[in-house]
């Protein structure tokens, strides 16, 4: 337990020596699996679009004590058992389904009023056309494109273009993985979800800039010291910046968990659930991508540049030459040396093998005992 506590303390102080070069390979394999699963689910299953995107009709009425199962049984009699039924807030029943004819809508309204024991006028009916959802989608895509272009321009000016490409790869990874999670688990995609997706892009870029700023600060160590490649320098920077990255992620996720637990599950605010779930998935993806996507992308680009390739070759050559030839082990005592000499002169000794000689200091000859007078 004390070892685990000490390791955590060193991690929070940035005193760890994690070999990120080895973990990057595993992280990229894991990211590839996530991306393949996300794209496969998007192509085969698609997204569970909410009523705001595909259009439909929504019924809301006060129904304290009415369960989702009771409402579904009542609607099954008029062929609406497949409608989306939720209990939100303080006993408010919400039913969403496809667009209906005026007669069918009036029938559904009457059934729900009879179930809750209220007047049909207390049942709020609202229809949403798919054109509004299409407008939201176009606005979100337009905002995403503008955001990505702004990232490329800003990071190219603030840092350098390889870092801009690394950040762009991380953001693209976050968007695909987050949307893929919604497709795999068939979470409903609503306007609140889209807003949350756009929100997490800013966090992902912030976390990536924190990492790259430390890399830029340590970049002068490469070549000047003659003992470090660019890859090793980035791994060192990751160890140094890990406490800040972890603290930022933890302090960002804790309020989101509060939104999910308190706002959604306890208070029944479904909108908070939709927003909080997208934030939770996106924050985890953003923290992961800054370490396992943005950083290795930067390293892959930099190590192909002539300057850092030459430094890498020089550092590796210096390490090889500094090791020198491997010396044979010398016996620790004269008796061991003579035994080794006899073994080397034995007839069964392989040809070409060199004899082991003793090169240590010979102890003084013991003094003879004199006669007592």
Give the tags:
373 residues, alpha+beta, four-stranded antiparallel β-sheet, 6 strands
Give your account of this protein's structure.
- There is one protein chain.
- The chain has 373 residues and is α+β, with helices and mostly antiparallel strands.
- Helix content is 67%, strand content 7%.
- The protein is built from 13 helices and six strands.
- Strands 3-4-2-5 form a four-stranded antiparallel sheet. The chain has a two-stranded parallel sheet with strand order 1-6.
- The protein is elongated, with a radius of gyration of 34 Å.
- Residues 326-366 have low confidence and may be disordered.
The averaged pLDDT comes out at 76
- Unreliable stretches (pLDDT < 50, length at least 5) are 326-366
SS class: alpha+beta
Radius of gyration: 34 Å
Distance between the termini: 70 Å
Taken as a percent bin, the fraction of beta residues is 5-15%
Find the count of extended strands (DSSP E, 2+ residues): 6
Supply the number of helical segments.
Answer: 13
Strand order of the largest sheet: 3-4-2-5
Please tell me what the overall shape is.
Answer: elongated
Helix content: 55-70%
Strand count, sense and barrel status of the largest sheet are: 4 strands, antiparallel
Helix-strand pattern, N to C? HHEHEHEEHEHHEHHHHHH
């Amino acid at each position: 337990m004390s070892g685990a506590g000490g390791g955590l303390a060193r991690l929070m102080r940035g005193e760890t020596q994690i070999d990120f070069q080895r973990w990057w390979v595993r992280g990229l394999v894991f990211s590839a699996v996530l991306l393949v699963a996300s794209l496969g689910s998007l192509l085969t299953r698609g997204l569970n679009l909410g009523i705001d995107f595909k259009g439909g009709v929504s019924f809301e009425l006060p129904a304290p004590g009415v369960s989702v199962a009771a409402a579904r049984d009542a609607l099954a009699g008029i062929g609406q058992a497949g409608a989306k039924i939720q209990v939100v807030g303080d006993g408010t029943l919400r039913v969403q389904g496809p667009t209906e004819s005026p007669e069918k809508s009036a029938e559904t309204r009457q059934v729900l009023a009879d179930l809750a024991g209220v007047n049909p006028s207390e049942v709020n009916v609202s229809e949403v056309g798919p054109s509004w959802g299409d407008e939201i989608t176009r606005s979100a895509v337009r905002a995403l494109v503008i955001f990505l272009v702004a990232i490329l321009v800003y990071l190219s000016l603030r840092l350098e273009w390889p870092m801009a490409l690394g950040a762009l790869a991380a953001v693209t990874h976050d968007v695909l993985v987050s949307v893929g999670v919604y497709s795999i688990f068939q979470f409903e995609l609503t306007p609140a979800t889209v807003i949350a997706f756009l929100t997490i892009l800013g966090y992902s870029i912030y976390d990536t800039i924190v990492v790259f700023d430390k890399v830029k600060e340590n970049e002068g160590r490469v070549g000047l010291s003659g003992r470090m490649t660019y890859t090793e320098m980035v791994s060192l920077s990751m160890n140094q910046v890990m406490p800040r990255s972890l603290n930022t992620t933890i302090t960002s996720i804790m309020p989101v968990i509060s939104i999910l637990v308190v706002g959604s599950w306890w208070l029944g605010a479904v909108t908070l659930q939709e927003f909080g779930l997208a934030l939770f998935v996106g924050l985890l993806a953003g923290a992961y991508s800054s370490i396992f996507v943005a950083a290795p992308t930067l390293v892959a680009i930099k190590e192909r540049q002539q300057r850092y390739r030459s430094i890498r070759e020089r550092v590796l050559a210096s390490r090889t030459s500094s090791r020198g030839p491997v010396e044979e082990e010398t016996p620790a005592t004269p008796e061991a040396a003579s035994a080794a000499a006899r073994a080397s002169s034995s007839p069964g000794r392989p040809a070409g093998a060199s004899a082991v000689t003793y090169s240590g200091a010979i102890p003084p000859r013991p003094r003879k005992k004199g006669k007592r007078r």
